[in-house]
Amino acid sequence: MNFSLQLLSGLAVGCIYSLVAVGFSMVYRAMGLVNFAQGDLMMIGAFIGYSIIVNLPGLPFWLVVPLAAAITACLGYAVAQSALWPAMQRGASQTYLVLLTLGIGIILSNGARLVWGANPLVYPIPLTHETLRIWDYPVPAVYPFIALTMVALIAGLNVLFTRTWIGLSLRAAADDAQTASVMGVNHRLASAISFALAAGIGAAAGVLYAPITFVSADMGMIGIKAFAAAVLGSLGSIPGSVIGGFVIGIGETLGGQLVSSEYQDSLAFLLMIGILLIKPTGLMGRKG
Amino acid sequence: MNPSSAGDRSEIDRPKLLQVCQIHVSYVAGVDVVHGVSLDVNLGEVVCLLGRNGAGKTTLIKALCGLLPVNSGQLTFDGTSLLGVRPAEIVAAGIAVVPEGRRVFSNLTVAENLAMGAYSRRNGLGPSWRFDRAYDLFPRLAERRTQLAGTLSGGEQQMLAMARALMAQPRLLLLDEPSMGLAPLLINLIFDTINRLAMNGMTVLLVEQNATAALDIADRAYVLERGTIVKSGLAGSLERDSEIQRSYLGV
Amino acid sequence: MILTRASLAATVLLSFASSAMAKDFPVGFFGPLSGPAAAYGSESLSGAQFALEEINAGYLGADKIKLIPADDTASPGVAAQAVQRMIDVDDVVAVVGGSTSAGTAAAIEVTKEAKVPQLSPLAVDSALTQARNPWFARIAQSSTAWAERTAEWLKNNKGARSAYLLARNDNFGVPLAEAFERKAKEIGLELKGRIAYEPSSREFKPTLASVASANPDYLVLWGYYTEAGLMAKQMAEMQIKLPFYVGSAIGIDQFRDIAGPAAEGTYGLLYYLAGSIETDAGKHFVQKWNERYHRAPTQYEGMGYDAMYVLAGAMKRAAASGGVTKQKIRDEIFSTREFQGATGPITILPNGDAERPLPMAELVGGKVKLDTLLH
């Protein structure tokens, strides 16, 4: 009973890590940069979700998720177009770009503090504290939402990337931007769209995570664990990021109980280091 | 290959499809890699551009497909200027490129690579475009359509890069060193295919170091050295040029 | 000429007389008025200002206190600068503050150097009164006292035989946990376990599972209200039913928001709980505050109010026995005995610590209810 509860909560948190990790991988593939603002975009998404709930009371939760994701995606698009692309155009080094994304993250979290205040916010909806009973197991009511959104997002991304021109062109541009542009793909637009999609997915994760905990400006910290998940699964691989998220989510919860809960937070990184030692390219990485 | 048939195609009165006039191109401002190059490609011709590594061949190709800006000079395709035109519009106008080193999208399947070739013609069509012509040209690709392009052999990747360029239904095909790094048997196959395309009326600008094979199928040729054209003429006459023989044909 | 001289003399005399009759004493106040810790500073400031209105209406006779507030944004560096400036520029006779232990610790160095009395309403870190600054006192109990009172309450009032200890792994949680553990050993309260969790943690289920399997009588937490809220919530999700002591989180709205229904029945120790003090001073404050704001005062407002009064009381006694000097104010602050404050009778100990009743409270029906007033 206790074990399955732990597993379930590990899966739920794993979903959140996975989604943020997918964002890391998408941006890495499309723009060749590690976007350390990914966690903060998730945080902004969670705050936007809060504002939607407060301003549109009665809006079903399953609509709050895509709405917050769409608004955050627009913000991500603007960030990519206004800050990242110009820097990349000028041939900025990786170090500079990483610092730039870190800076964007700091601006986002301070901005959130200005707009939404310093105190943690709790979604004022029953979902936050409701518990369902599934086969006599107590399950927080938000878990089914997390599971469904996860499945829908992964299925949606799969369709997008393999069945649509836009998805295909994003993948092609991620593979070889110059050749894709000779085929007619606008690299700048493709980069911005990838960044926006990653922001939107992160925002969905934030809105889903909020009822489990609360929303605060330092919520972006979770991005570090999601980054470990992405690296563990092989940065740039979307299936790898999903698997990496689950490995860390479940590893943390179960490992935390089996080993010692005092080191629960370090477990994510121990797992990452352990897996990279065995397989340096990550779980889904190819050789060479 | 019968040289006389190549000669038959090179009628002087054919309309000019591509006109390059005194263009200067650079990677870094002020340092021209291509300076003052002029060349023409007539409709239906196979024109070959010979030159060693670093002569400026690839730079010229990049300028033609809009990847590098032209600092000065004129560039017209079918009577329309290409100066300042973006790559997307150039491919839509009818110029497709087979880039140096093939550059297939290695994380995309063969079919997806072909679909990307047709990206500029995507209006109203889904990516599940009909690939029959590409597969007819290279049956090997049909067998591997669901395979990731990165797992193909070098020769197969070259076939894919050519088929992908043809998916754009171009009027001018730019080929940048298609024989590079391939086994002799595959080189023959590639050049046979280029010749077949030319027979069917495709206009081709072929950049090559492998002068023997290239001059065999070309109507005319230009020789590029240090960013300028040093020689030009009918392929047959260049083949007999002693200097060319010494420098490029290894005779 | 004579007229001029006479009028000059009159002016000098008048101004001398008026200054002798009524003085404005500048007093500094510092604490976080912005940023994440703003509630501590701004609420204790409004309590102090409320007290000041009463004080300036005759408590010091004709004399008045002029309060000079400064925002330290909870940053030690800013706190030290602000206090230095109010001493140098405004020539304050005393400083009320700070509201966080870190800010207070930085300011102590300044007041010690300048020999200016400093009285903190909220800082609890035990180290503060061990810093050997004879100019520093506080009306809040040290963290050691909080932990010890809690252990005694569990054993004596609740009849608990065992407890499980969770502490935030930083210089806030660990000293509290250590003080609690010492006291628990001393009085024979069994500790079934102790876990120091990472401050960034948000997933406590593995920890709580360990707690549940140890089956203690009480779970005791020394952490922030966000962690307290998440733990209460996650215990409810795991269907662990355990009496839970959450510390001062119980008085914070966000704790109740985060924990939701799971906040019900949690215990916590507060600085002050409106309505828990049955003395005249206690009733007076709550009544006046209610008249003005139509709500009960918060714990920080109560503490700000009392800090101002303890200082004013010292100034009043100083005025009565010779003169209001910094040295005299300091001496009188340290001689405060059974001062009838709004938060209870306050005695300042020789090391600058305070004796004062602490209200142990329980959340009942979403409201903070007094369990026991601990002395």
Structural class of chain B: alpha/beta
Tally of individual helices of chain B: 11
Number of strands of chain C: 15
CATH class of the largest domain in chain C: Alpha Beta
Structure summary, number of beta strands of chain B: 10
CATH topology of the largest domain in chain C: Rossmann fold
Residues in β-strands, percent of chain B: 25-35%
Estimate the mean pLDDT confidence of chain B: 88
Shape of chain C: elongated
Q: What are the segments of chain B in which pLDDT stays under 50 over at least 5 consecutive residues?
A: 1-10
Shape of chain B: globular
Order of strands across the biggest sheet of chain C?
2-1-3-4-5
Largest interface: A-C, 32 and 34 residues
The string of secondary-structure elements of chain B, in order, is HEEEHEEHEHHHHEHEHEEHH
What gap, in angstroms, lies between the N and C termini of chain C? 70 Å
How would you characterize the largest beta sheet of chain B? Answer: 6 strands, mixed
Largest sheet of chain C: 5 strands, parallel
**How big a fraction of the residues of chain C is strand?**
15-25%
Tell me the number of helical segments of chain C per DSSP (H or I, 4 or more residues long): 12
Please identify the structural class of chain C as seen in this structure: alpha/beta
- What gyration radius of chain B follows from the Cα positions, in whole Å? 18 Å
Structural overview:
The complex is a heterotrimer of chains A (288), B (251) and C (375). Chain A has 288 residues and is mainly alpha-helical. Chain A has 11 helices and 2 strands. The longest helix of chain A has 30 residues, at 2-31. Chain A is globular, with a radius of gyration of 19 Å. The model of chain A has no long low-confidence stretch (mean pLDDT 90). By secondary structure, chain B is α/β, with parallel strands linked by helices. Chain B is globular, with a radius of gyration of 18 Å. Chain B is built from 11 helices and 10 strands. Helices cover 35% and strands 27% of the residues of chain B. In chain C, helix 2 packs parallel to helix 11, helix 3 runs parallel beside helix 4 and helix 5 packs parallel to helix 6. In chain C, a hairpin with a 2-residue loop joins strand 11 (339-341) and strand 12 (344-348). Chain C has 2 domains: 24-140 and 279-356, Response regulator (Rossmann fold); 144-270, Rossmann fold (3-Layer(aba) Sandwich). The radius of gyration of chain C is 23 Å and the shape is elongated. Classes of the chains: A mainly alpha (288), B alpha/beta (251), C alpha/beta (375). Chains A and C meet through helix 1, helix 10 and helix 11 of A and strand 7, helix 7, helix 8 and helix 9 of C.
